[in-house]
């Protein structure tokens, strides 16, 4: 009687160990997916922050009232308080006007000038100082190409290691699920347990079959947009660098605070050296970020391929659902094309 009981004990221990191992793998997979998602969101927020700061420095709509000349201010004041008969054409017309009219126009002109001065004082803090949320960092927008490119390179490095770890963990989970599918004595619920334990935590790195990606515009367009966002550490610093380079050759006269350097011909030697050093740093960081993002994308593609293969074996209906979505997309596209064609004939 002791023999069978003794032999069953190792089996129970092994089963308990396998159960804990699967639970640990699932927890590690969920943590890896969340980690990659958080870094991706940080990259997106940082990229949008850089683009917004660059836009506010060069082309905000508020630049119009800030750069109004004295004549334009006087014209606006006159339009706000039209002169009455005998009031002349304004304060600078040289004509005799009543004291009430002069006071009225002077008060309106002073109001416009005070508003303009207030805007100029506030613009530097509101539009030309980049305030990084959560971290509490502040820096000038003209330093964006240097500080921003380095920060994006750091985020790209984080994203690379996050995707690498996610790839390794998901690969281990897929291997365990495939072994269970191929092993006759293994529990058939285990592959589904591993698959669904990970699938419902994925958002951006969704498991999609290769054939659907090749045929489906429905899935290809969103995934292409996600890929463009993951490469923000590369192309966003290049946008900032291009705008700064353009401002050197062709200064932005309509910017809220135009670059006082003017053209390269009017710059000092140290200014040119500083611009070149900043540009080299930005370009180097952008190229380094591109390499990291490309390698991270390879890890992501491998993860999607492995998990997509597991999805076909565990949940074959998922492919049918994807193809059904593609059919609905094609029907809607055909309906839109027919409507456009009919409206053109009419």
| End-to-end Cα distance | 92 Å
Q: Identify the overall geometry.
A: elongated
Uncertain runs with pLDDT below 50, 5 residues or more? Answer: 88-97, 207-213, 253-265
Summarize the main sheet. 2 strands, antiparallel
Structural class: mainly alpha
**Approximately how much beta-strand content do the residues carry?**
under 5%
Provide the succession of SSEs: HHHHEEHHHHHHH
Number of helices: 11
Describe the structure.
The chain is an all-alpha fold and 346 residues long. The protein has a domain at 2-59 and 136-315. The protein contains eleven helices and two strands; from the N terminus they run ααααββααααααα. It has helices at 2-58, 63-66, 70-80, 99-127, 144-182, 189-199, 210-215, 217-230, 232-249, 269-314, 317-345; strands at 129-132, 137-140. A two-stranded antiparallel sheet has the order 1-2. Strand 1 and strand 2 form a beta hairpin. The radius of gyration is 32 Å and the shape is elongated. The model is unreliable at 88-97, 207-213 and 253-265 (pLDDT under 50).
Quick recap of the structure?
The protein has 346 residues and is an all-alpha fold.
Features:
two-stranded antiparallel ribbon; 76% helix; single chain; mainly alpha; 11 helices; 346 residues; elongated
Show the helix and strand layout.
Layout: H1 2-58, H2 63-66, H3 70-80, H4 99-127, E1 129-132, E2 137-140, H5 144-182, H6 189-199, H7 210-215, H8 217-230, H9 232-249, H10 269-314, H11 317-345
Antiparallel strand pairs: 1-2
Helix pairs in contact: 1-5, 1-9, 3-4, 5-6, 5-9, 5-10, 6-10, 9-10
């Amino acid at each position: 009687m002791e023999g069978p009981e003794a032999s069953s004990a190792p089996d129970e221990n092994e089963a308990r160990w396998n159960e804990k191992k699967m639970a640990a793998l699932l927890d590690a997979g969920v943590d890896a997916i969340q980690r990659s998602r958080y870094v991706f969101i940080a990259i997106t927020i940082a990229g949008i922050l850089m683009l917004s700061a660059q836009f506010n420095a060069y082309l905000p709509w508020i630049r119009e009232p800030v750069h109004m000349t004295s004549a334009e201010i006087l014209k606006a004041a006159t339009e706000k308080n039209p002169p009455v008969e005998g009031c002349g054409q304004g304060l600078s017309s040289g004509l005799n006007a009543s004291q009430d009219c002069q006071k009225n126009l002077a008060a309106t002109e002073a109001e416009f000038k005070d508003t303009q001065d207030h805007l100029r004082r506030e613009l530097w803090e509101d539009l030309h100082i980049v305030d990084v949320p959560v971290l509490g960092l502040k820096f000038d927008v003209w330093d964006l190409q240097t500080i921003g490119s380095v920060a994006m390179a750091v985020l790209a490095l984080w994203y690379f290691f996050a995707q690498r770890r996610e790839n390794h963990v998901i690969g281990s989970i897929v291997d365990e699920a495939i072994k269970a599918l191929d092993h006759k004595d293994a529990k058939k619920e285990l592959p589904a347990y591993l698959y669904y334990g990970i699938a419902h935590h994925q958002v951006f790195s969704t498991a999609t079959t290769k054939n659907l990606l090749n045929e489906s515009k429905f899935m290809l367009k969103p995934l292409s947009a996600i890929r463009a966002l993951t490469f923000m550490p590369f192309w966003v610093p290049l946008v900032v660098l291009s705008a700064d380079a353009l401002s050197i050759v062709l200064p932005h006269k309509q910017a809220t605070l135009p670059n006082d350097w003017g053209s390269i011909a009017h710059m000092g030697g140290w200014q040119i050296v500083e611009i070149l050093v900043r540009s080299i740093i930005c370009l180097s960081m952008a190229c380094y970020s591109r390499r990291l993002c490309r390698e991270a994308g390879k890890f992501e593609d491998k993860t999607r391929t492995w998990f997509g293969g597991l999805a076909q074996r565990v949940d074959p209906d998922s492919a049918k659902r994807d193809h059904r979505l593609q059919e609905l997309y094609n029907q809607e596209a055909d309906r839109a094309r027919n409507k456009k064609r009919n409206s053109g004939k009419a």
